[in-house]
Amino acid sequence: MVAVVETANQTTRLPDERHALAIRGLSLVYSDGKESLREIELDIPVHAITVLFGPAGGGKSTLLRSLNRLNDLTDVRHRSGQVWFDGQDILQPATDVIALRRRVGMVFARPVVLPMTIRGNMTYGLELAGERDHKHMAMLLERSLRAAALWDEVKDRLDDPAISLSGGQQQRLCLARVLALEPEVILLDEPTSGLDPLSTGKVEASLHELKSRYTIVLVPHSIQQAARMADYAAFVLDGQLIEVAPGKEIFTRPRDRRTQDYVEGRFG
Amino acid sequence: MAASPPILSRRRYQIQRAGFAALLMATLVTVVPIILIAALILWRGAPAISWEFLTQPPRQGMREGGILPAILGTLWLTLGTGVLAVPFGVAAAIYLAEYAPESRWTRTIRVAIISLAGIPSVVYGLFGLGLFVLFLGFGTSILAGSFTLAIMTLPVIISTAEEALRSVPQSFRVVSISLGGTQWQTIRRIVLPEALPGILTGVILGLERAAGETAPILFTAAAFFLPRLPTSPLDATMALPYHLFVISTQVPGMPIRLQYGTAAVLLVFVLGMNILATVVRSRARARRQW
């Protein structure tokens, strides 16, 4: 099914070929009224790192979780607007959310390894998807662990419990676990917030490598990380998108006064 | 300027000591009688226990011989209860913990289950008599007794299993779903294995209670005296708790040795299940990785 949106005098497919996701008029209110989004309009460029930054509680995670319908697990009171992915509005009830989440993977702030072996964590998603070919799984496992800069540290202990890894290793395992599903988009919600500088460096290096093949949306854990990582950056404040620009511009020449105040550390 | 108070005043220290002593006393008051009861029964019952006692049916109006039919009867009833109550109990717990929306309806169900646990067991016995023995025509039988005990055990199994399922961290579910798992895949592959030890503990404790109950089987399964062993689920059976009741109150001239012996066997049976539950729980806790 390819949905088509009418504009003035042409038909356009959303998102266009330069973007992986197109968010249109997205509003969302949780039942507990904690965080909300108001009329978000944002295009996420293909094969680049888009950073969503702003003060805590402003809606960055909510926005991120709307992109693979992980919000479904939370009590949402109201949701309107569209999120276009591969020609479909994924907010439509008919969306196959299981398939969507395989194509739009997610890494969380706290590394949560599943209570099984390292190998079990890596093949979990593949097995759920019905993958039976052990050779193929082994290939994906090694490739993904290499891409997450973890292979050399775990290749001899794949059958150890994943919990035996250090925090930094666990978070890279979480990243590798998502990569094994060969997604098109990777969402990362403050993936380095609990990590030491060395592990943070490894994760950031992996992400720089990965952006040639994946579309990455990152909620950074600091403004410094935002500046280091952003090809594009979107400033989110109180549920609104204030400003979107290439990373180099937004941190040196912000157009909006509020962005400038935040970037310069006057609040947040 | 007033002198600052001492870091831990002598008086406070004494109050604290008195508090600890009171807590220790309360613990002893609960524990000591239990240990005394168990010790007394085992000590007075031990002389009665012999190979013959465990492997022979009663003779001479139950004043001699063994209690094999009662032991096997209790075994069958416990097994039957498990077969009936465990699948339903665990399924209901999965529904309540994982699927049921928080609504008035769900809360009503939960309150009903908790209330069921508070119903006196003799009421279950009468209910079983009416429904299983008479209406469904099972007669006084292992089947009717198992159904009755199962209904009595269900609330315990459901509440402990639900608790065990809820104690599995939500983050596991979110991660599994974010990796493309369906809700059922998540439950089957992550939540249930993690909750299993807790569920087993509840199952064993529930069955242990069923094994020791007299009232529910009084009208539904138990026979006063049966020289032979039951051969089908539709047979009546002797059972340890009921047999103990019978030989303690209904048989004149009963040797007290045999009464203590029977009580000791029942106690070991139930304590054994209790220890099993403890082992399952502590081993799982040692293995647990979160």
Mean pLDDT of chain A: 91
CATH architecture of chain B: Orthogonal Bundle
Q: Which chain pair has the greatest contact?
A: A-B, 24 and 21 residues
Q: Report helical residue fraction of chain A.
A: 25-40%
**CATH H-level name of chain B... which superfamily?**
MetI-like
Number of separate strands of chain A = 12
Put the structure in a nutshell.
The complex is a heterodimer of chains A (268) and B (290). With 268 residues, chain A is of the alpha/beta class.
Describe the structure.
- Chain A has 268 residues and is α/β, with parallel strands linked by helices.
- Helix content of chain A is 34%, strand content 26%.
- Chain A has a single domain, classed as 3-Layer(aba) Sandwich (Rossmann fold), CATH 3.40.50.
- In chain A, the strands form three sheets. Chain A has a six-stranded mixed beta sheet with strand order 8-9-10-5-11-12, with helices on both faces. A four-stranded antiparallel beta sheet of chain A has the order 4-3-6-7, covered by helices on one side. A two-stranded antiparallel sheet of chain A has the order 1-2.
- The mean pLDDT of chain B is 90.
- Chain B has eleven helices and two strands; from the N terminus they run H-H-E-E-H-H-H-H-H-H-H-H-H.
- In chain B, helix 3 packs antiparallel against helix 8.
- The chains are: A alpha/beta (268), B mainly alpha (290).
- At the A-B interface, helix 2, helix 3 and helix 6 of A face helix 7 and helix 8 of B.
